[in-house]
Amino acid sequence: MNVLYAGAYRRRFRDVVSLIDQEARSVCELCFGDTLVAEWCRSRGIRWTGVDLNPRFCARARAQGFDVIEGDLLSLSPPRADVFIMVGSLYHFHERLSELFDLVWSRTGTLVLSEPVRNLSSQPGPIGWWARRSANPGDREAGFRYTEDSLREALDAQRKRHEFDIRPISVQRDMLMLLHRPSTSD
CATH code at 163? Predict the structure, then answer.
């Protein structure tokens, strides 16, 4: 992934964690892959739980002493958390986005979302083939990718189902956003 991000992979995560509210005590990272956010949370006394389908990612995180839930995200019940994070994995759910947002908003009021919108995997030929293979979540190659416009459209469609604010932070290779659902009283 560091090759795909031209050496800026760690900076991607620094940008993400900068959006975690200073008062947050718990973070649930969906499709975590590595433990960069987990390590950041541990160093600040924030409870981190990772959810991922890939057994290798989960085993590595467990070996480092992190709490992990292994399996298909949409068939699990992740813990409630002050903040949910999803970095570079929303495209895996593009056909089941409504289910994903139902799950997320039932467990948190804040989602930090970073999604690639300029992708090598959209390229034809060997470069695109290699990039698509490197993005395999553990159960399939993933050919679909968002563009900036298609991601905005997908999120707008979800806003019709759930009231939430989108605060765009930056658009470079990834679109980084803070999504927040206003508190509702019963």
Answer: 3.40.50.150
